[in-house]
Amino acid sequence: MKDLRILAVDDDKAFQMVLQGTLAQLGYHDVTSVPSASAALKVIRNSPQLFDGFLLDIEMPEVDGVELCRRIRAMSVYRKTPIIMVTSLADKHFVDGAFAAGATDYFTKPLDEIELRARLQVMRQLVDERQRALDLLDELKSWSDLPKSKVKFDAPLSVISANWMVEYLAMQNHLLTLNRLQLFGHAAIGFTVTNAAEAFRLTDHVGYIDYLANIATVIAETLKTSPFSMAHAGQGDFVVLTNRTAVSDPRRLQEDVRAGVGSYQKLYSSLSLPSPVIQVGTPVSASIFSQRAEISSLLDRARMSAQIGLEEGFSPQKQRD
Known about the structure:
Largest sheet: 5 strands, parallel
Order of helices and strands: EHEHEHEHEHHHEHHEEHHEEHHH
């Protein structure tokens, strides 16, 4: 298995030594450690090879980890690279800002080997997914029609580069890191493209990704007044994680999303693709007494809520009644 090339940034030399030693025990040996954001940017600029992932301490003097994350994301070659933030328990309130800046995940100090292993497994999966996407693009250059079998309809896809778009796996992992009070303040909302399978059948990989990206953009524009993150979960399903009180009327939200999608009708027709039929589910939240198994299923329940909604009356006809 290819060793990941990791850049770790932390101004605490003692923690750097512990981190590097733990990474080596876990099988990660290609690690570069630097003490500041400025040193990190210099290493990134001068490195002949790209890094596979970053571990950034949030609290650093001068330029902090959140701003460093934002600067790394501004580099086109690192727009999709996993960035894991490192924070003390006392500074976890900075995590939301880090996700807004483009962070993929985070773990807390003091270092826990099991937690670090889990975060690095997410990093490796994201790196592997990115490599598969690059391989597909290479194949696209040599094929006039990319085989559809290369893209699985059921699999989560990275459909657009935006600070609110995250990997589905990272969203699942983020939920599991929240404490009960933080989790109680969140809600998950499912969006189902009920005719996504038809669009998948009628176009190639690039066309299907563009189709989903357009839908994701419409959803984001509809939700722009509220902080949120979004992930594509496969099968034409999207899940949005937002504030518990952000969406009080899912029927109105569905109407607005459908109206936004409808404005692209001519574009879909010109591409011989069906106009997306969007189904919005009822927001799903966790109880402050939720068990870990319930938390793990929160996103699945949001998707199911959107799918069940079609059978329980959230149809275009009933919306107009």
